[in-house]
UniProtKB/TrEMBL annotation, chain B:
Region (Disordered): 263-286
Membrane topology, record value: Peripheral membrane protein
Organism: Neoroseomonas eburnea
Cross-referenced InterPro entries: AAA+_ATPase (IPR003593), ABC_transp_ATP-bind (IPR050319), ABC_transporter-like_ATP-bd (IPR003439), ABC_transporter-like_CS (IPR017871), Oligopep_ABC_C (IPR013563), P-loop_NTPase (IPR027417)
GO CC, one annotated term: plasma membrane
UniProt-recorded name of the protein: ATP-binding cassette domain-containing protein
Broad class of the protein's primary localization: membrane
Keyword terms of this UniProt record: ATP-binding, Nucleotide-binding, Transport
GO molecular function, one term: ATP binding
ABC transporter domain boundaries: 17-256
GO BP term (any one): transmembrane transport
Record flagged with keyword ATP-binding: yes
Superkingdom, taxonomy of origin: Bacteria
Subcellular locations according to the entry: Cell inner membrane
TrEMBL record, chain C:
Domain Solute-binding protein family: 78-443
GO BP, sorted A to Z: peptide transport
Signal sequence, renumbered to the chain: none
Intracellular or extracellular location(s): Periplasm
Name of the protein described by the UniProt record: Peptide ABC transporter substrate-binding protein
InterPro entries recorded: Peptide/Ni-bd (IPR030678), SBP_5 (IPR039424), SBP_5_dom (IPR000914), TAT_signal (IPR006311)
Superkingdom in the source lineage: Bacteria
Lineage of producing organism: Bacteria, Pseudomonadati, Pseudomonadota, Alphaproteobacteria, Acetobacterales
Cellular component per GO, a single term: ATP-binding cassette (ABC) transporter complex
Family per record: Belongs to the bacterial solute-binding protein 5 family.
From TrEMBL, chain D:
Pfam families from the UniProt entry: ABC_tran, oligo_HPY
Top-rank taxon: Bacteria
Gene Ontology cellular component terms for the protein in this record: plasma membrane
UniProt subcellular location: Cell inner membrane
Keyword Nucleotide-binding: yes
Protein name per its UniProtKB record: ABC transporter ATP-binding protein
Upper lineage: Bacteria, Pseudomonadati, Pseudomonadota, Alphaproteobacteria, Acetobacterales
Length: 317, 323, 541, 340, 291
């Protein structure tokens, strides 16, 4: 187990190097750059732009810039933002809790709902419920998230005024759990919608797959009644691919959170990314890419460990 | 004796077992561990043994479908064990294989005509018209109508597919055909048809067969000589009749006694070996069979017995046969 | 196991949902007179006034936390702030040759950490601006200072290399930073000060919730007297519609910058308990013609293209008539605006005649060409700006009618305003910019022939416009100290630009702000980008 | 638990009380547009207590479907297809609800499947899997059932039962798994054990062990066994009586000695002849049955074997023959049976 | 059980028979066919030039004026014409992106799966690396890299979403290459290329086909996302995504401007999703209904 974790973490190093190289290359080779923001300032002149380019180190060859950045990362220095000169790690970490909260709550809702719908669909295959659930899931998957989000704001926040339209807290109510929950409802539902749909489909097929296995027939042949077959025999086996999915889902969640946060003004990493991308805050963008990559790697690692815990055949090698 | 068509000496196929952390090689599965065989032209050598004994690996290694780790494979006098793919090309025409599973061995997305024309396309033999003629002839040879060429494999029964598989193996007019359990997936009534077909083709075309099988009864009908494998090693080689009626190795004897016979009440006093075949990843020391052997001696656990010739064409690797 | 935990979480969550739906919604109905909540769509990323990038957004912390030497009020008058009085010829602050400027500083001003404010801070601010290691957004004006002398603790003297009237503007826009803190920093770029600022301003930064809002607490020792509310909250609502919604419900007291969407102005004006403020900005929106491209070298082409556009219609229908039409780079309300200019747009026939005359004749495919060059070009602006895209579509149609093909090629802001603009790679741009030095009519950086960055590595004359007469007038304008002289000079410049159209002005950008009726203080000021310019004065009625 | 199920009994004595299992006119017709696949076509047979009936047939003959049907193990949509009666100890299984059937499965009637590698739940210890039916049907505590599970493992010849009970299936060899399967099936000492190709996937030496084990367990527990296989040699060694299936029907049924000594149906005879045997001087060619099993569309109106039959007469193609007694206990469905 | 029974119909026939039973899939297929046809014939079907604007006629409601059957937008352009032409753009993006995705994914998947060894390790590490980026991240970063044209957006979407396909294909190839027909081809001396593209590829067609239909759906959605975030197809070219973006400001006052393109996106994505689902059921032997 320790050996496995160690090896996976070792394997993560080239992966992270790859991510950083691709990310760095894409960003720096792209036209435009952080200096464009200064162009909007009426008093700026060509000589000012040149001076700032040198201060930001953008005049150096790209490989020199990369090596400088990478050495920084190795010594725990994630660099400073171009605009504001704040440590990148601080900037990211102050946004992280909000994103994790949103992702966590959306994921919880989605897993619970999706799993229930999927299992029920698998058990009552081709029933009215199954057809409705399948159709509904496809329907949900066909909605652009932002469109659904805007509709939700329009209906629940503007017309009905049941829920706040955005933000995380009522001003001055920071720390009030009720206020937080009120603000959490709409973005959670919007983000959860698509994941629920995905999960219901995956869990349906995972259960269908398991229920056709020989050992399920064995369980039936020894007189285990349907409910116990589902819970004791099918569930642990079906959970495996779903847990693997959970690991793979991380980047997808980030993508979804990005759009959702933008719509609902949720102060998380998604908005930080959109803002940083708009301003070409390379250090922040790089930091976030590394962060999500680390999350993805950890997510997959945890999923693998969980799978090994469930399935004795899987040895962590 | 004339030079054999195929002579395999000391053939080894090893698969590495790698460590968790750095994928270092920490062990070896000796799937095939020093196998010696020879096949004369027109002869059938049967390779028998239980699952995991390495018989299929041996067969595929001879064809270089699996890379051998050591030993020599002399085919027509030339050692092909280390030939490059390009050097192998001419040998591909001279030896072919028929597989066990008639479903998996035919490409489901190709017509039978396409499957049978592939050998000619690969070796650039003839033009399209010529190839079609050849395909028709092949189909006739294995007892199928030429119209079969237009159809897809799934439209055929298992026996018919196996005929197609045989036709493909014969397309390039090989001298040696390796049959990897060619009838074990078939129903009994079909099995007889295919055995008869293969025997007929052997007689007509002068083929040599290496017949890999776990079914001793089938082997007894097709083989000229039999080699018995256990955990990567050949434990006994003998002419057909000798092996079935005068087996010397305890494993061969056990195997024979376990074969069920379609005669009610003839349930023989079995000397069925206890336990299961051990894993080839961690075979027992010395003679691999010693933990299950009724005649095991202390020596058997320490020392692997060498193969000894006990009679003409009969070799046994057992300490009981030690002088 | 994961799934069980999450189930519990969700159960708690759904119980919560039930509770909230049952809870009464009291949000935003009553006024909390202890604080003012200001909403904007963007979030400031830093609070060091020397380093700011987003004009408008970062002006808020700047105005709350810092002071400049003097400010500009809504009439365009300079009013002293940290300076005891605004230097002028009359009060002896400016020498007769206009080269020596003396500033007397207010006494008894303290930094929020209790340290006294002195001339050293002003000197340090100047030095920092000129330091090669600090990414100050602009040195415009400051680069003319030949010598900076601290006469005593409360007097500084600056000697300019040449007379430069807009020098006043340079200092009103530049807030003073504390010498005693920043001089200790190795690297001002990454100093902790940038996120924990210390200033002399009317407010202190109390807390900051990234992505959400910032809370300011009143500075009891403010040199102009303490602010009238205890708390000032700057809230970020990234979606304009959402922000407008919050201003309607009262979740925020004042919606500024971005403001009310143009199509909602009529609606917003009608709210009985809200004030709708028409807030002019210094920005003017232009079509930029790249005079360095062969199609646009001939002023007649630029003029003909401009004639063909339906400028007034674009304002009426796309900006819902909310913008004033302007014919120069100044808002029509600016003191130097040339009111004699005549709008020649919406004249397709005239445009066709002019193009024919210039030798651009329609080809077989209906597109005009001359010497094998077709009158075909691209127009770029920030991708995703719906209103500008609407304008582009209209202009495209206008030009198609006269045999000119324009292709819209919009790009993300960081691309289009990058080297694409600064190295003059565009054909045409649709762009909104404000004058170069505060609200001074000086436009040297944008249209002097020495200011073409691709040629001279300085300036921001991205359209590569060259005209010797304009150059001469620009050089003259900055030396004239009498407003009447200056008006004459700049009207002349505007007239030439109106003829030769290196950039065709469309309209002056105006924002619609919405505030509670009871909120006093927010006052439109077209001379600054800073909507909180008088934040120390804001109060509840 | 019925007394009958627990006590080992003399098969012949039990037979006097009437059969344990009576299958009557079992039919499974599956619509496979545009055809109807008559997968099981009016199958009837009886099985006495403590007896082993071999059900033999080639692939596609319907033997496995018959077994799954009488266990009521078909999944939807197939579950709706079967007709006929399956009377076990006086109860028609076809009329039971799934819950009622669940109470019977594993207790009165159990099943062992062909694939030992996939038939055990990979994420449950072997011990738990054996204990499960005992907890469910016999009301044992988990602790008791686990102890009994170890006993069962010892009974099926597993050398280190305590260790194996705690092990997961993937650590066991094929033979060991099949033993564990048998332990599960016999845990509640069922009256009937259905064994569907229990040794087909195993090596020949292990097959011999498992067949011996089944025989030993039958002596110990007294269960009747329905042994389904394609291998006549396995039948010869294990069964008391044999039923031969071809294309969904039973074509011949007889005591094992009688069938092997004097098969009356041409198909049975052909089948027996085509089995290769170890002989000193084998014939140069094996006797073969020409042609192949007909597909669902090609199944003739009369005897399904007629097209391949050397003794076929015109009426064979016209009308399917009934399964009629030709000698005591020996029935065959043939218009023109072989001589006895 | 009945496997030996030789089926008289062809494989395609059986697939079609299974597919036909899937009524939603059939409906999806029909919707897709209709959409493709309407996009193909958009210039003929559209009553107006989609870029022709007349602000005097803006915000006409649908069904109010037969000149503008579905009303007009904020610049007075005909919504129906824009929907039809927008469909052309969105579907082009979807199809081009799908082809890019499938070709890249299949090629890498086959190469990794069949060649194994170092090639496999390197390629799959590359896939892992790409998977570490949330797709929207990559998409936006790359979108900032190239000017947003129809082709570049399609390629960008395609090149950022092939990883899943390559994993599917690789898994399929790993399974297939152990099959004896591949060994047979090798025994005959077939070259690697022949084995990869003639023997293996056609057998991996089913999952590729399914992935392809689903990729069209996700690419259409993706285009609307990046349009929403301001990096999409540029005006005056109408795409459903940018129609939606433009309609954002009129969400509460002129809702049909947002509802119509939103519905078009949903319809398209659903059509392709149902089609893909039906194909999956029809092509995946494990989910067969027949015994």
């Amino acid at each position: 187990m320790i050996g496995f974790v160690a090896r996976r973490l070792l394997q993560a190093i080239p992966l992270l190097i790859g991510v950083s190289l691709i990310g760095f290359g894409l960003m720096h080779l792209a036209p435009g750059g952080p200096l464009a923001v200064y162009t909007l300032n009426p008093t700026i002149q060509a000589q000012d732009i040149e001076r700032i380019r040198i201060i930001f180190g953008l005049d150096q060859p790209i490989h020199v810039q990369y090596v400088k950045w990478a050495t920084g990362i190795f010594s725990g220095n994630w660099g400073y933002t171009f605009f504001g000169g704040r440590p990148v790690l601080d900037v990211i970490l102050e946004r992280l809790p909000a994103t994790l909260l949103l992702m966590g709550s959306a994921l919880s809702v989605a897993i619970l709902l999706g799993l229930s719908i999927g299992v029920l669909g698998a058990v009552k295959r081709y029933s009215v419920f199954d057809v409705l659930a399948t159709t509904g899931a496809l329907f949900a998957l066909s909605f652009p998230t932002f469109w659904f989000g805007l509709m939700a704001i329009f209906v629940f926040a503007i017309e009905l005024r049941w829920l706040p339209s955005g933000g995380m807290w009522e001003l001055g109510e920071e720390g009030n759990i009720l206020s937080l929950l009120q603000h959490l409802v709409l973005p959670t539902l919007v983000l959860a919608l698509v994941i629920t749909a995905t999960w219901s489909r995956y869990s349906r097929s995972a259960f269908l797959e398991v229920m056709h296995q020989d050992y399920m027939r064995t369980a039936r042949a020894k007189g285990v009644p349907p409910r116990a077959r589902l819970l004791r025999h099918a569930f642990p086996n079906a959970a495996k691919p779903l847990i693997a999915l959970l690991g793979v889902e991380v980047p997808f969640l980030f993508s979804g959170a990005l759009v959702t946060e933008t719509i609902f003004g949720w102060p998380g990493m998604g908005r930080l990314f959109v803002d940083a991308l708009g301003m070409k805050e390379y250090p922040v963008l790089m930091g976030m890419m590394m962060f999500t990559a680390i999350f993805v790697i950890l997510g997959n690692l945890l999923a693998d460990i969980a799978i090994a815990a469930i399935d004795p055949r899987v040895r962590l090698r | 004796m004339a030079e054999p068509l195929l002579e395999v000496a000391g053939l080894q196929v090893h698969f590495p077992i790698r460590s968790a952390l750095l994928r270092r090689r920490i062990g070896t599965v000796r799937a095939v561990d020093g196998v010696n065989l020879s096949v004369a032209r027109g002869e059938t050598l049967a390779l028998v043994g239980e699952s995991g004994c390495g018989k299929t690996t041996t067969g595929k290694a001879i064809l270089r479908l699996i890379e051998p780790s050591g030993g020599s494979i002399r085919f027509g006098g030339e050692d092909i064990a280390r030939h490059s793919q390009a050097q192998l090309a001419p040998f591909r025409r001279r030896m072919q294989i028929v597989f066990q599973d008639p479903y998996a061995s035919l490409n489901p997305r190709m017509t039978v005509g396409g499957i049978l024309a592939a050998p000619f396309e690969i070796h650039r033999i003839g033009d399209a018209r010529d190839r079609a003629d050849r395909v028709a002839a092949l189909l006739r040879t294995v007892g199928l109508p030429p119209e079969a060429a237009r159809r897809y494999p799934h439209e055929f029964s298992g026996g018919q597919r196996q005929r197609i598989g045989i036709a493909r193996a014969l397309a390039l007019e090989p001298e040696l055909v390796i049959g990897d359990e060619p009838v074990s997936a078939l129903d009994v009534s079909i099995q007889a048809q295919i055995i008869n077909l293969m025997k007929r083709l052997q007689a007509e075309l002068g083929l040599a067969y290496v017949m890999i099988s776990h079914n001793l009864a089938v082997v007894s009908h097709v083989a000229d000589r039999v080699a018995v494998m256990y955990l990567g090693r050949v434990v006994e080689t003998a002419p057909r009749e000798t092996l079935f009626f005068d087996a010397r190795h305890p494993y061969t004897q056990a195997l024979l006694s376990a074969v069920p016979e379609p005669v009610p009440g003839r349930r023989r006093a079995r000397q069925v070996p206890q336990g299961d075949v051990p894993s080839p990843a961690s075979p027992p020391s010395g003679c691999h069979f010693h933990p299950r052997c009724p005649h095991a001696m202390p020596r058997c656990a320490q020392e692997a017995p060498a193969s000894r010739i006990v009679a003409s064409g009969h070799a046994v690797a057992c300490h009981l046969e030690a002088p | 196991m994961t799934i069980r935990i999450s189930r519990r979480g969700v159960l708690a969550g759904s119980a919560g949902t039930a509770m909230l739906l049952a809870a009464p919604t009291v949000r935003g109905q009553s006024i909390n007179r202890d604080r003012i909540i200001l909403a904007m769509t963007q979030e400031p990323v830093q609070f060091n006034p020397l380093l700011y990038v987003n004009a408008g957004t970062e002006n808020v912390p700047e105005a709350c936390l810092f002071d400049a030497l003097w400010d500009v009020d809504d009439k365009g008058n300079f009013i002293p702030n940290l300076a005891a009085q605004v230097p002028s010829r009359q009060n002896g602050g400016i020498s007769a040759d206009g080269l020596t400027w003396t500033v007397n500083l207010k006494r008894g001003v303290k930094w929020s950490d209790g340290q006294p404010f002195t001339a050293k801070d002003v000197e340090f601010t100047y030095q920092t601006i000129m330091s090669p290691n600090v990414a100050v957004r602009s040195r415009s004006g400051f680069d003319l200072i030949k010598a900076f002398r601290v006469k005593d603790d409360h007097t500084v003297e600056m000697e300019l290399s040449r007379p430069f009237v807009p020098f006043l503007w340079a200092w009103q826009n530049m807030h003073i930073v504390p010498h005693h803190i920043l001089s200790r920093e190795q690297n001002i770029q990454t100093a902790a000060f940038n996120s924990q600022p210390i200033g002399t301003g009317p407010f202190l930064l109390r807390s900051r919730t990234a992505g959400s809002h910032m809370v300011y607490e009143r500075n009891p020792n403010y040199h102009r007297g303490p602010a009238k509310v205890r708390q000032f909250i700057h809230k970020f609502v990234p979606d304009q519609m959402a922000a407008y919604g919050q201003a309607r419900t009262g979740e925020v007291d004042y919606l500024a910058l971005g403001g009310v969407p143009n199509d909602r102005w009529a609606e917003a004006r009608a709210f009985p308990d809200r004030d709708f403020l028409l807030y002019p900005t210094p920005n003017v929106q232009f079509i930029y013609y790249n005079c360095g491209k062969p199609q646009f070298a001939d002023p007649r082409v630029r003029r003909a293209l401009t004639m063909a556009t339906q400028m007034q219609k674009s304002i009426d229908d796309i900006y819902f008539g909310t913008w004033p039409r302007t014919l120069s780079y100044l808002q029509p309300t600016h003191w130097a605006y040339n009111g004699d200019l005549r709008d020649y747009t919406n004249d397709a026939a005239g445009a066709e005649r002019l193009l024919d005359e210039a030798g651009w004749r329609r080809g077989a495919d209906g597109i005009r060409a001359k010497d094998g060059v077709q009158l075909k070009f691209t127009m770029s602006t920030t991708a995703g700006n719906v209103a500008r895209q609407g304008c582009q579509a209209l202009f495209q149609q206008n030009w198609k009618a006269i045999g000119v093909e324009m292709e819209i090629r919009n790009m993300p802001a960081s691309v289009v305003w990058g080297e694409y603009t600064t190295q003059s790679r565009f054909d045409t741009l649709l762009v909104a910019w404000d004058p170069t030095v505060g609200l001074d009519p000086d436009y040297t950086a944008r249209c002097h022939s020495r200011m073409i960055p691709v040629k001279h590595r300085q300036g921001s004359n991205y359209v590569q416009y060259e005209n010797a007469e304009v150059d001469r007038l620009l050089e003259l304008g900055v030396t004239q100290t009498e407003q009447a002289d200056r008006i004459r000079t700049y009207r002349q410049i505007q007239a030439i630009l109106h003829e030769e159209v290196p950039f065709a002005a469309q309209g002056g950008s105006v924002q619609g702000h919405l505030k509670r009726k009871q909120l006093q203080g927010p006052t439109p000021n077209q001379y600054v980008t800073d909507i909180t310019w008088n934040v120390y004065d804001w109060a509840w009625a | 638990m019925t007394a009958a199920a627990t006590l080992p009994r003399d098969a012949r004595a039990a037979a006097a009380e009437g059969p344990l299992l009576a299958v009557r006119d079992l039919t499974v017709h599956i619509p496979v547009p545009p055809h109807v696949l008559r997968a099981v076509d009016g199958v009837s047979f009886e099985l006495n207590r403590g007896e082993t009936l071999g059900l033999v047939g080639e692939s596609g003959s319907g033997k496995t479907l018959t077994a799954l049907t009488l266990m009521r193990l078909l999944e939807p949509p197939l579950a709706e297809m079967p007709r006929g009666e399956v009377v076990l100890e006086g109860t028609d299984l076809m009329r039971l609800s799934e819950i009622e059937m669940s109470a019977l499965r594993g207790r009165t009637v159990s099943m062992v499947f062909q694939e030992p590698m996939t038939s055990l739940n990979p994420v449950m210890t072997v011990g738990r899997q054996i204990a499960e039916p005992m907890v469910r049907h016999l009301g044992l505590s988990t602790r008791m059932a686990t102890m009994r599970a170890e006993e069962m493992l010892r009974l099926v010849g597993i050398p280190d039962p305590a260790r194996v009970a705690r092990a997961y299936p993937h650590l066991l060899s094929g033979g060991m798994r099949q033993r564990a399967m048998i332990a599960i099936a016999l845990a509640c000492r069922p009256a009937l054990l259905v064994a569907d190709e229990p040794t087909t996937a195993l090596d020949v030496t292990v097959q011999a062990q498992i067949l011996d084990l089944l025989a030993a367990m039958q002596r110990e527990i007294g269960s009747a066994i329905l042994l389904i296989t394609h291998d006549l040699a396995v039948i010869a060694e294990t069964a008391h009586r044999v039923a031969v299936m071809y294309a969904g029907r039973i074509v011949e049924e007889a005591p094992v000695a009688s069938l092997f000594a004097a098969p009356r149906h041409p198909y049975t005879r052909g089948l027996l002849a085509s089995i290769p045997r170890i002989e000193r001087r084998p014939e140069p060619t094996l006797p073969e049955i020409p042609g192949m099993v007909p597909g669902p569309a090609e199944r003739p109106a009369g005897c399904a074997f007629a097209p391949r039959c050397g003794r076929a007469q015109p009426r064979c193609a016209a009308k399917a023959p009934a399964l009629l007694p030709l000698a005591p206990g020996h029935r065959a469905a043939c218009w023109n049976p072989e001589d006895g | 059980m009945s496997a030996t029974a030789a089926a008289p119909e062809s494989q395609a026939g059986r697939v079609w028979a299974r597919f036909r039973r899937h009524r939603l899939a059939l409906a999806g297929g029909m919707v897709v066919a209709l959409l493709l046809a309407s996009a193909l014939f958009a210039p003929v079907l559209a009553p107006q030039d989609p870029t022709l604007l007349d602000t005097a006629l803006r915000f006409r409601a649908p069904f109010a004026d037969w000149h503008f059957p579905l009303g007009t937008d904020e610049l007075g352009r005909d919504t129906l014409s824009r929907l039809l032409h927008g469909g052309r753009v969105s579907l082009t993006v979807g199809l081009v992106a799908m082809v890019t995705t499938v070709m890249t994914g299949a090629l890498i998947g086959i190469a990794a799966g069949y060649l194994g060894g170092i090639a496999d390790t390197v390629l799959m590490r590359f896939v892992d690396t790409m998977l570490c980026f949330p797709q929207v991240f990559l998409l936006l970063v790359v979108a900032a890299f190239v000017p947003p044209t129809l082709v570049s957006i399609s390629l960008v979407i395609g090149l950022t979403s092939w990883m899943e396909v390559s994993r599917i294909v690789r898994a399929e190839i790993l399974h297939l290459k152990e099959q004896d027909f591949v060994a047979a081809a090798r025994a005959l001396g077939a070259s690697r290329a022949r084995i990869m593209f003639r023997e293996l590829l056609p057998n991996a067609a089913a999952p590729i086909l399914v992935a392809a239909t689903l990729k069209v759906a996700s690419a259409v959605l993706m285009e609307s996302y990046i349009s929403y975030l301001g990096y999409g197809v540029q005006p005056p070219l109408a795409s459903w995504g940018n129609m939606l973006t433009n309609a954002q400001g009129y969400f509460d006052t002129v809702p049909w401007l947002a509802i119509l393109p939103g519905a078009a996106i949903t319809l398209t994505v659903m059509g392709f999703n149902f089609l893909g689902d039906g194909l999956r059921d029809a092509l995946d032997p494990r989910l067969r209904m027949d015994p």
